[in-house]
Amino acid sequence: MTNLESRIIERLNPDLSADDCALIEHGGRSYLYTTDSLAEGTHFRLDWSSPEDIAFKLVQVNLSDLAAAGGEPEFCLLNLGLPETADEELIGRFAAALREQLSDYRCKLVGGDTFRANGYLFSLTLSGPALYPRFRRANSNDGIFLSGHVGMSRLGYEILNNRKKGEKPVTGETVPLQQFSEQATESGKPVAANGDIEAQAIQRHLRPRANLEAARQINALQSHSFPVSGAMDLSDGVFADCQRFAESSGLNLTVHLEKLPMLQAVAAYGPEFAASSGEELELLVASSRDLPEGFVRIGEFEESAQEPVARFLLNGQEAPSHPGFEHFREPLQ
């Protein structure tokens, strides 16, 4: 059931945790380490993304992993792979935006590496104290809860992609953007969303933002002994990340797609559309008790007799899962 990326990691180090962060002890203090990269043509396109967009996303995807694991940023390392014809203005704008981002989070850049590559590659390693360390773990009969809402990142991608091709705004059943309602569906309850939906969707795709408020809310709950079994950030989509959560926990997971919190602009294309949306940077949290407002219960864990699997239902019927974003779909040659 595991994908090729997971199998490659296992071959590198069979004992290596599949979690997004590593927990390391330094002088009696616990630190979390995470790393994430953005590669041209895989994670961004220069005809869509500005240098400022790239710097923003690079910091946020790392920050999201750290916050989901219960940490706060303190220092980082930066690696830059640059083509032989690298645009110095692009690098200057990226550097200025990166410094601003790191300053906002009081995170210090302490080193890194620069090298020649076929395209632009930006890689950040982020570390900071582990305040309430938590990983992709769950107990049988835990619920799985999702923060915020999902699907807007994919909607933004579809808008940008179809603009480029000169086609209709979004694939699938066409819903004119001007008819989109600025409401979200959250288990049947409307939630306000401000501003232009099309602009919000593009912003969500180009500049996803870590849900630090949700992560700190979980920290506060844990400080009062609230039972939180584990958590992870939502980076590759509900389909892919729920499967990872199930595998890491050694449990089966049933997800009810109709419970996914979505803006109505996203709901127009169905829960499967939302569940395949990556880089949402929301939180998936396992707990035996209901979480407060801002989190929606979308499923439950249960014992697994065989290989752990995530099962997806839509109104009680089996729904085929989409793999979401994967680096490798075919075996490496």
Entry keywords:
single chain, 333 residues, alpha+beta, 60s Ribosomal Protein L30, Chain: A, Phosphoribosyl-aminoimidazole Synthetase, Chain A, domain 2, seven-stranded mixed sheet, five-stranded mixed sheet, 9 helices, 15 strands, 30% helix, 28% strand, globular
Topology (SSEs and partners):
Blueprint: H1 4-12, E1 22-26, E2 29-39, H2 51-68, E3 75-82, H3 88-104, E4 108-116, E5 121-129, E6 143-147, H4 152-165, E7 183-186, E8 189-192, H5 197-206, H6 212-223, E9 228-234, H7 238-249, E10 251-256, E11 262-263, H8 264-267, H9 271-275, E12 282-287, E13 295-303, E14 310-314, E15 317-318
Parallel strand pairs: 3-4, 10-14
Antiparallel strand pairs: 1-2, 2-5, 3-5, 6-12, 6-13, 7-8, 7-11, 9-12, 10-13, 14-15
Shape: globular
What's the number of extended β-strand segments?
A: 15
Portion of residues in helices?
25-40%
Query: What's the helix-strand series?
Result: HEEHEHEEEHEEHHEHEEHHEEEE
The number of distinct helices, counting runs of at least 4 residues, comes to 9
The helix-and-strand class reads: alpha+beta
Low-pLDDT windows of residues: 169-194, 327-333
Task: Summarize the structure in words.
This protein is α+β, with helices and mostly antiparallel strands. It folds into 2 domains: 14-129, PurM-like, N-terminal domain (60s Ribosomal Protein L30, Chain: A, 2-Layer Sandwich), CATH 3.30.1330; 143-318, Alpha-Beta Complex (Phosphoribosyl-aminoimidazole Synthetase, Chain A, domain 2), CATH 3.90.650.10. Helices cover 30% and strands 28% of the residues. The chain is built from 9 helices and 15 strands. It has helices at residues 4-12, 51-68, 88-104, 152-165, 197-206, 212-223, 238-249, 264-267, 271-275, and strands spanning 22-26, 29-39, 75-82, 108-116, 121-129, 143-147, 183-186, 189-192, 228-234, 251-256, 262-263, 282-287, 295-303, 310-314, 317-318. The strands form 3 sheets. A 7-stranded mixed sheet has the order 9-12-6-13-10-14-15. Strand 3 (75-82), helix 3 and strand 4 (108-116) form a beta-alpha-beta unit. The longest helix is centred in the N-terminal third of the chain and has 18 residues, at 51-68. It is globular. It starts with a helix and ends in a 15-residue tail after the last strand. The model is unreliable at 169-194 and 327-333 (pLDDT under 50).
